[in-house]
Design a protein that fits this description.
It is a single chain. Helices cover about 35% and strands about 15% of the residues. By secondary structure, the chain is α/β, with parallel strands linked by helices. It folds into 2 domains: about 120 residues, Aspartate Aminotransferase, domain 1 (Alpha-Beta Complex); about 220 residues, 3-Layer(aba) Sandwich (Aspartate Aminotransferase, domain 2), CATH 3.40.640.10. β5 and β6 form a beta hairpin. α2 packs across α7. The longest helix has 21 residues. The protein is globular, with a radius of gyration of 21 Å.
Length: about 375
């Protein structure tokens, strides 16, 4: 095991909160306090009773408000996170063939799940190098277009756009929802897990669905296609409309997601949340552009994520060493994505993280690198 250099960062430089993980991301202390205050009446209760169903209803309605959803859109939810939703979509949203944009680990996982599904046809995979963002291409032979709003592994944001063609648009928004602006009308299913921008825990998926998406769910459910019940989007939809999940959810996750939604909506909506991330991104990328040892991994400024920054370090500076020293000083989870295999740090700039803490982090990194020289 490599010895961690004995470097103490002065207290005056340290951020007020040292959590910079890209998922799970920072959980707001105010939300945890609210959960503790209501725990005796909420945790350990039946998810089919009003105590919980009212929280689920508030979350569903709050999300429609936050996303400025068009008329007829609705929020579905179920257990298992976005990874489970990929499999559920292969059963309940893809009729036969999909187009998948791949530019990193997570976008590739959905494409792989669909490719392995024996009941589906051959998909169209449009792939680009990590750090770039391909665009959807109209294709009359596909019935869904699938891409991420934000590729968490590489720090690339994709424009949320609808190709000029038929077919549902399925957008993986796990690290984008609640932190990046978008036009909901350009999506049919905007799905995510709440352990990133929503400052909650994992184990839950949420999906904003258009009328065309819910019609597709009903259409496929009426066929003879076999679907495991836990992956059945028709079952999830029917339960969601009753403000519940098919099986017992993590109640704390739902509660914390609601508290984030309320915080955002009470302060001006998605523009408020995205504005905080915009401030953090401006600080982070301006620092990296001006640094002698750091540079943004994503070369095209328009594709640089405002919620997850990937920053390359020069060969003379070990990212692993910098990350280890930061952790020893209480600054957590700044490692680059392991499968990308670069000398890199990855920093969450999600709305719950104060922009002032991002600025403090850059000063701490400068201090550590100077001490290592």
């Amino acid at each position: 095991m490599e010895t961690i250099p004995d470097i103490t960062i002065p207290a005056a430089l340290l951020p007020a909160d040292g959590r910079f993980g890209s998922g799970p991301s920072k959980v707001r202390s105010e939300a945890v306090a609210a959960l503790a205050a209501e725990a005796d009446d909420f945790l350990g209760t039946s998810h089919r009773q009003d105590t919980v169903k009212l929280v689920v209803a508030a979350l569903r309605n709050g999300l429609l408000e936050m996303f400025n959803a068009p008329d007829g859109y609705e929020i579905l939810l179920g257990n298992g996170g976005a990874t489970l939703f990929w499999d559920a979509a292969t059963f309940g949203l893809i009729r036969d063939r999909g187009q998948f944009l791949v530019s990193g680990e997570f976008s590739n996982k959905f494409a792989k799940a669909a490719t392995l599904a024996p009941h589906l046809g051959d998909h169209e995979i449009i792939e680009s190098e990590p750090g770039t963002a391909p665009s959807p291409v109209a294709n009359a032979d596909v019935d869904v277009y699938c891409y991420p709003h934000n590729e968490t592994s590489t720090g690339v944001s994709f424009p949320v756009e609808r190709p000029d063609a038929d077919g549902l648009v399925l957008v993986d928004a796990t690290s984008a929802a609640g932190g990046l602006r978008f036009d909901a009308a350009n999506t049919d299913t905007y799905y995510f897990a709440p352990q990133k921008c929503f400052s909650s825990d994992g184990g839950l998926w949420l999906a904003m669905c258009s009328p065309a998406a819910t019609e597709r769910i009903d259409e496929i459910a009426a066929t003879e296609r076999w679907v495991p019940e836990i992956l059945n989007l028709k079952t999830a939809m029917d339960n969601s409309r009753k403000d519940q999940t098919y099986n017992t959810p993590a109640l704390a996750t739902i509660f914390l997601a609601l508290k984030y939604t309320e915080w955002v909506n009470e302060n001006g909506g998605l523009d408020f949340a995205a504005g905080r991330s915009d401030q953090s991104a401006s600080i982070m990328y301006s620092w990296a552009d001006a640094s002698e040892f750091a540079s943004p991994f994503v070369s095209a400024a328009e594709n640089r994520s405002h919620v997850v920054a990937t920053i390359d370090l020069s060969d003379q500076v070990s990212a692993d060493t910098v990350v280890a020293v930061l952790r020893a000083n209480g600054i957590l989870d700044t490692s680059g994505y392991r499968k990308l295999g670069r000398n890199q740090i990855r920093i969450s700039m999600m709305p719950s993280i104060d922009p002032s803490d991002i600025e403090a982090l850059t000063n701490c990194i400068d201090h550590v690198v100077a001490a290592l020289s």
